[in-house]
């Protein structure tokens, strides 16, 4: 047992070191053009040639407090902090998910996801793949993604963030693109991550490239371990009345809603090699949009072979379209044949609206010159929902009501006075 004195000293030390920690991370917050900005590193990811890493990292570092996130940028770096080429470490995908952690109960977590639409998964606020480096994530003023609002956290819980990061080390790979498309034959797997046999005719996709699987590398290759980190930069402003919150929606082209009435997202699909000279493969899904609002920002997510994607309104108008940017050289951020960015939409606020209950069609286009396995078609949009407008309307309404009451009271008083006057007179 420690004596009360020692306990006191330990306690004091703990407080002091906590305070220094807080100070250190506070000191790392940069302020530029009114935005706060902070650079963080994920836990270490250890890879060797051919290896797949797909891990969940709970309680990652994230700005504290009630804030509006303005951007979330990232890239993979090595131990020296230098950017790593997609030709060596392929960022298949990553997602940053918010959750509520029950204090003192490690396995009690509630996902505090985005606004939809998939019933399971796709609950991230931020997430991309190889396009991470060159895809703008900036949320234009006066909008922001509201997080850390203490009023929304259930009692006994605290808000935290986690990452899922899926990366493939393709150094020395026999067929790097094949590894990145998760071709089952290159991984020599016959079972999925839960030990279930693969579906017959399943030739590629996420069921073949789970954590710890190994893609085929050249014979005699020396296996050299490598540690990398996911480096992410968050920019934000403190929450205030001048920030207008936007909702995050992710539409998935594999959503079965139009056939099943539920948002069952299959996550991945396959593009067959075309038998004709039409090399555009189109996949479509239709959903009914749950809320009305203005589109503030949007971009699509695709894998190898992707040639663009678009969201259409019920009347056929284009809500947003987004195209991949393929790298052309050897430089980091311009890796030939890789999708290094996606174009984004920033409609003039108020110019692109979605109506409540509107039928929205998502189309995802891939080149079918070759077969592609394990592809995806997502569309990420930020919506300023109409539920925020009534704050102003409510103000006007309350003011009106106040005026009405005041007039009524004044009128009653006068009437009363008149009555009294009359009673006196009579
Ligand atoms: C593929 O897996 C089987 C058993 O799962 C194993 O016997 C064989 O050596 C593996 N082949 C390669 C090339 O790793
Ligand atoms: C990667 O890990 C996440 C979290 O455990 C899991 O949900 C997902 O299915 C995994 N993906 C693959 C391809 O194994
Ligand atoms: C090519 O096929 C797609 C269907 O995948 C179709 O939407 C498109 O209109 C076709 N293009 C031409 C030029 O026929």
Automatic annotation (TrEMBL):
Protein keywords: Membrane, Signal, Transmembrane, Transmembrane helix
InterPro entries: Stress_up-reg_Nod19
Pfam families (UniProt xref): SURNod19
PANTHER family, A to Z: STRESS UP-REGULATED NOD 19 PROTEIN
Transmembrane segments: 391-410
Signal peptide annotation: 1-21
Protein name: Stress up-regulated Nod 19 protein
Top-level taxon of origin: Eukaryota
